[in-house]
Structure formats: C-alpha cells, structure tokens
C-alpha cells in the first residue's frame, strides 16, 4: 500500500525539496502552505504533470482547528498519514534587545505550537495503526545557538527537546520520532547574506560549501523509511562539519 506524507511549510525551500523527493519515491504527498500559494500550486502542478500523487492544503499550523481539518481531510483522501514532517518555520536576525514580544510569540507559535498541533493531531492515528514516523526540522542553531537569533535558536532548541521526549513516549507504539538539524543550506531563507558573509560561512564549513536542499531531503526520506525503524529520538545534523 502506498504511504502518505504530510509536510508542513512545503511550498518552497527545504520543504519543497522534501515534497519532491517523497513524490519521486512513490509516496502520496500533502503539500501544506499558508502564505506562498502560487509556489505551492506550481509545485503541485509540476508533480502532477510528472504523474505523482500530491495534494495541496492551505492551513495555518498555529490554529488547531485548521490543523485538525487538514489531518482529517488528508486521512479521508489517502487513508492514512504514515509520515509527518514538521518543517514549517521562519527566521529573523535581530539583536536580542530589539526583539518585540510579537516577534518572539510568532517565532514560538510557528515552530513550537505548530509542531505540537500537527503532531498531536496525527499521533492518535499513528498510535491506532501501531506505526508511524514524525520528523522535525530543527537547525544547527538549535544545537549551539546563534548571536542575533536568540528567538530562532530558542525555538529550534525546543524542537530538539520535543523530539527526544516524544520519541520516548511514542516508542512503545512503534512510532519513531527524529530530528534533522540542517546547517547552512542554499535556500531563500539565507538570501539575506552578502557575499562576504557567505564566504565566512563556507570557510567555517570543513566541506567548504553550503548544503543543498535535496541533501536534507534525502536524509528525511531515509529516516522515514523502514531502513531506519531502529532509529528514534536522534538529532541528525546535515551540516558539512560546521558543527561537530
């Protein structure tokens, strides 16, 4: 039976690459987006033209009712959600003393509350099936912290703590919960960097380059596969040696 994956924030960047990779590997793919409608629809169109099984779903993962509707509609259409990838996120560089309360709350709501909503809505379905994979996308900055990104680093560190705790709780139900923590990846999220800053980051990376979205996606695909059934509660950092 064909498996189904729900990927939050998958209209662009790493999320888009994850969607493409799973589609190419015979999954039903649910492309979740909130704001980037055109990119989501373009991705869906391209994948449908290639003969893949995909569905686009607009939902604000910060809002519980929208997540519940997305999960229920997805299960109704495809019969199950076998893999959940909590990928949706935002980034911001700002001095700690300048971060507003709204900016802090929004960072936590998208990364932490959104992950909580999606995981808690999918978990009962996975528990009843006695199988499932939850994969959370963190960051190296959740592992080591980044200056001028305290709120982002805090949220990404929270994802790691969530992953380890939930892995222990859902393990007896044969559900694996893992975390991917990318390093510097070539995406729109890093487009604010100037050439000098990019050069510094490359010099600090032992493999001497930025990572590619598809390299992250391939690791997500592996963790979602039966080959990784004995891996849970782990943080896998695709970072080229930037953090060792």
Task: Outline the structure in words.
The protein is globular and about 50 Å long. Helix content is 48%, strand content 14%. The chain has eight helices and seven strands. Strands 3-2-1-4-5-6-7 form a seven-stranded parallel sheet, with helices on both faces. It has helices spanning 13-24, 37-49, 64-78, 101-129, 140-144, 150-170, 195-203, 213-224, and strands at residues 4-7, 28-33, 54-58, 83-86, 132-137, 175-180, 235-236. It is α/β, with parallel strands linked by helices and 244 residues long. It has one domain (4-236): Rossmann fold, CATH 3.40.50.720.
- Number of structurally distinct domains: 1
The radius of gyration over CA amounts to 17 Å
What structural category arises from helix and sheet content?
alpha/beta
> For the record, what is the CATH homologous superfamily label?
NAD(P)-binding Rossmann-like Domain
Query: H/E order of the elements?
Result: EHEHEHEHEHHEHHE
- The dominant shape is globular
User: What separation lies between the terminal Cα atoms?
Assistant: 39 Å
Strand order of the largest sheet: 3-2-1-4-5-6-7
**How many beta strands in the DSSP annotation?**
7
Q: What oligomeric arrangement do these chains adopt?
A: single chain
**Low-confidence parts lasting 5 or more residues at pLDDT below 50?**
none
Q: How many DSSP helices?
A: 8
CATH class (first level) name: Alpha Beta
Biggest pleated-sheet summary? 7 strands, parallel
Share of residues in helices: 40-55%
Question: What is the CATH T-level topology?
Answer: Rossmann fold
**CATH-derived architecture:** 3-Layer(aba) Sandwich
Strand content: 5-15%
Instruction: Give the integer mean of the pLDDT values.
Output: 97
């Amino acid at each position: 039976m064909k498996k189904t994956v729900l990927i939050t924030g998958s209209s662009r960047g790493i999320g888009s690459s994850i969607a493409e990779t799973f589609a190419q590997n015979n999954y039903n793919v649910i492309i979740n987006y909130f704001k980037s409608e055109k990119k989501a629809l373009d991705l869906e169109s391209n994948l449908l033209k290639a003969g893949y099984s995909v569905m686009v779903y607009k939902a604000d993962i910060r809002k519980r009712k929208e997540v519940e509707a997305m999960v229920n509609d997805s299960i109704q259409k495809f019969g199950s959600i076998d893999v959940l990838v909590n990928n949706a996120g935002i980034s911001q560089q700002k001095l700690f003393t300048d971060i507003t309360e709204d900016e802090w709350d929004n960072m936590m709501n998208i990364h932490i509350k959104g992950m909580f909503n999606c995981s808690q809505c999918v978990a009962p379905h996975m528990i009843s099936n006695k199988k499932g994979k939850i994969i959370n996308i963190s960051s190296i900055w959740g592992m080591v912290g980044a200056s001028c990104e305290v709120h982002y680093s805090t949220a990404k560190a929270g994802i790691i703590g969530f992953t380890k705790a939930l892995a222990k709780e859902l393990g007896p139900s044969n559900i694996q919960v893992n975390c991917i923590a990318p390093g510097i990846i070539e995406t729109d999220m890093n487009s604010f960097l100037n050439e000098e800053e990019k050069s510094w980051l490359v010099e600090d990376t032992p493999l001497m380059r930025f990572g590619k979205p598809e390299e992250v996606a391939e690791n997500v695909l592996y963790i979602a596969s039966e080959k990784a059934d004995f891996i849970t509660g782990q943080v896998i950092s695709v970072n080229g040696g930037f953090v060792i």
